[in-house]
Structures are given as structure tokens and as C-alpha cells.
Amino acid sequence: MTFSEIRRRPPGTQLDFTELHPVLRRVYAARGISCTEELDLSLGRLLPVGSLDGVEAAARLLAAHQRQGRVLVVGDFDADGATSSALVVRALRTMKFCHVDFLVPNRFRFGYGLTPEIVALAAATRQPSLIVTVDNGVSSLEGVEAARTLGIPVVVTDHHLPGESLPRAEVIVNPNLKGSIFASSALAGVGVAFYVVAALARELGDEAFRAADLLDLVALGTVADVVPLDRNNRILVAQGLRRIRAGRCVPGIRALLEAAGRRLAPRLNAAGRLTDMSVGIACLLADDPIEAAQLAGQLARLNEERREIEQRMQLEAVDIAAGVRFNALGTESLGLCLFDESWHQGVVGLVAGRIKDRLHRPVIAFARAEDGSLRGSARSVSGVNIRDALDSIATRHPGLIGKFGGHAMAAGMTLFESDLERFRAAFAAEIAVRADPDALMGIVHSDGELQGVELSVDTARTLRGGGPWGQGFPEPIFDGEFKIIDARIVGSKHLKLQLQPISGSPPGVDSRGIDAIAFGYIGGPVEDASVGPGRQLRIAYRLEVNDYRGVESMQLNCQHLKLG
Fold this sequence. Notes:
Elements: E1 5-8, H1 22-30, H2 55-63, E2 71-74, H3 79-94, E3 100-103, H4 107-110, H5 116-125, E4 130-134, H6 141-149, E5 154-157, E6 171-173, H7 189-204, H8 215-224, H9 231-245, H10 251-260, H11 264-274, H12 278-285, H13 289-324, E7 336-339, H14 348-359, E8 363-368, E9 374-379, H15 386-396, E10 404-406, E11 410-415, H16 420-434, E12 443-446, H17 457-464, E13 478-490, E14 494-501, E15 514-518, E16 536-548, E17 551-563
Parallel strand pairs: 1-12, 2-3, 2-4, 4-5, 5-6, 7-8, 15-17
Antiparallel strand pairs: 8-9, 9-11, 10-11, 13-14, 13-16, 14-15, 16-17
């Protein structure tokens, strides 16, 4: 809950649009919104379907298998892969494809992507006439070759960054291919899948199918994969959220919402982390609300198990990080590699993310795989493209890394355990060259201070409706100085505060002050027992609407805090 420095965002040029709330005008300007047209998130503003390279060829190949072919969708084992798989299966079944099935790799047995082993399993158990990958495949050179040997054509739909060589698939649809003319390279895997099925409906002349009916899945997968919310992705997410809020979503999403509130992605991801993603995909494919609720219950139980494993691993990772942050010369490492023999390979990505957030530097957490190798999951900070960093290490040190792939902020890799120390040194050196020191200081970017009437539930409601917010279009954070009226621990680890602004309470706020909460304060990077009434506090916070028993009030969600 600490920060090294708060930096206020440059103000930008505010929109000349008086109907917008003044705070929202300020926030939009700081994010580079220069005209009101950029705020139009209607579906008609989406980049044209045909402008995505390869999408028409993929649609033609799929259409050829509508009547007699057996189409097999092979997805990734995360939320983006699950939503992508469910979207394509639902779309093809709606368009009356005669036989559609899905297969998702068990990450512990088969690893990531369309591997030769997955192809062999598919051929033996599903006999596909066409394989369609979703959210994977662009790095599956060997798997695509195995499919070609068996006479099975492959359509690759993916969004991950390609390597030097591409698989010899029939068609590759990926906005990140070299020379792509598509105007949004930030599409998630589910976004690419959406464009493919939309092109397919046009190819088949299927007027009964509406791709927009699947935007609830697109929104969930896009947000879960933390891809940059450029305008095209903001349209996809905004339209999908509109459907979800109106209750026009698949029963699986409705069941997950009833069980988990807003945090759907962790529950969906839990299946892929601990077993395989089949139960998550089945939940999103269920049309019966009772079946969907049962599957959502299974996901909830898996998520609880995942949470317990993660908490243990996170404590261990903190201790390990403390021992490897400095090299023999006493120089602090800007990139960390963490490993423990007992760690669960499905959870190392979460641990890497937690330590990255705590220490503000790229982290790779490793676990031992079934074949004895190490499988690592990397998480990065802004300004350090982790996939490019791994590519550079692989070039400089041939044979050091087994397989790797991913994108700027997250990646996966394999490594022989005997090479861990050599890789740790190479990784630290590579990050030292690439890292902007500012990005490793835990700097908080603020939208400034809210004063007077701006600090209100009305402003909180306005900000809530001003999104969607996310990666590349960050949710507003404000900063200010407050005096503590009351402080107590709730839920065993969260700090509940009543605060009074140093500049004076805004209209409508009584002597009890303003509600604030710091989630995860106990067990966080810094705990200060002297937090109590009368102390002065500087915080960076999100202004939120707290709905308690039908009564709405404002709440400060503390992102970072420092005692004065």
C-alpha cells in the first residue's frame, strides 16, 4: 500500500463539451481524448470486419466444413481462451454446423498451444476434418506440422506476438502479424474469434445469426486478458457490458455473476490453473440455468482451492525475493526469477503478478513440470516488453530457453532446472538494459485532487459510467491529504477508515467523515500499527459508489497510502 512518488498526469486539452461532468472532462483529457467522436462507443464505430487480415479466408475455409465436416476448436486454458472457445462453438452451432466440438489442453500434461500431442489426441478421439485454434497457435509450428501430416487443415486465430517463423497453417488470423493493416493490434483472442465468426456469418449469408449477441463473451475475455483498451476494444467491452447489465448474457455468465459479483475472471481461470478449462467452457456453453449454476459452483470451489494455494506460495515468494534481489556485488536486480520445488505450476503466474505489483519490476515465477523441466510465468511492468526480452535472451544465449511465447505484459516459458542460475543472470542483465527506472519505482499516476462538491457520490456515479476503464485507459485515481477520524481492521486484513479532508469536508459530509477502505492492508508491503485517529494521511484513491442495503454513498478505495 505504499508508493515512491505520486505524479499527476499532464492535464491535456479538455473537450469543449459542456454536457460532460467537469471531472470527467479532465480525466478524458489526461488520457488523450481530443474530440467527442472518440467517446462514441456504438457498435457502428467498430473497425470493419473485413479489415482484419485473413478473416475472409478463414471464413471461406470454415464455410466449406459446415455441412459434413467435423470442426474442432482448440483453445487456451485461461479466461480469454475459454470465452474464445465458447464463442466459436456457440456461433458454429447457431449457424447449423453439423458437428462442432472443443478440446482444451491440460496445461500439466500437454503445455500451451496446439502441440503434436494435442493433435494426436484430437485425431484419436475426435477425428476432426478441420482444427480451429483460438487464443493460441501462432507459435505452434510443430503442432500444425503434425496436423498437416495427418491431413487435417488448421485455421489459427490468435493475438499473441509471432516469432521469427510462422506455422504452416491454412490461414492465420492475428492482428499482430508483420505487415498487418488492421488498426487495432490490441485485440484479445476472443476479439479475433469474434471477427472470424462475424465474417463467417457474412460468408454464409446467415441473417439469423447476429455476432453482436456474443459480445458478453467478448467483454469478459477482453477484460480478463488485460489487453490495452484502445477505442476498438472499448467498443467491444462497452457493448458487451451493456448486454450483461441488461441480463442479455449467456446463463453461465449470469450464474458466475450471482456467485462472484464482479470478479468473474479469477473463478473462470481457476479451472485452467488447477485442472483443465473444460468445466469453465462448459459453464459458458450451458443453456440451462440450473446446469450453469452447478458448473459455476464447481468453479467457485476450485477458486477457493486456488486462493489457498496462492496465499501460501505468495508468502514463500516474498521470502525468496528478499534473498535474490541483490547480487554478489550488492547491486539490486531489476528483474527477478523465483522458484520453489513445491510450487503449483498453475498458480505461478498469479504469484509473479503479486510480486511484480509489490516490488515494481518484472518477475518470472517457476514451478517444476511433470517432465522435470521448469515452467515459468512472467509478468512485466509498463515499458518492458517481456516477450521481446525473452526473445532477446534466446538469441543471445542459444539453447538456454526451451519454448516461450506471450505478449508485452505476460509470457510463458520452459527451462531446464540446471540452467536456472544462468538464466537468472541473463534475465537480470536484459531487464537492466530495457527498464525505465521510473517504471520500477512504484510511481502512482494521479488525476489530481478532488475538492469541494467534486468529492461526492454524484462524481463517483459519473466516473463509474465513464468507462470502460482498463489497461491503456486506466480507471481514474485521485490523491489528497486527510485526517484520520477512525481506523479499524475488517475481514481480518482490510483497513477501514473514516477520513476528513485537510481542506475541509465537502457539502453533505457529516462529522463521521468519508468512508475509505484499503483492501489487503494486513499482509501487504507495509503495515503501520500507528495508523489511528488524529494522524494525517496522504492517499491515492479511486472514488467509488458503495451500495449498502440499497443506499448509495461514496467510498475512497485506497490504492496507496502514506502516513504524514
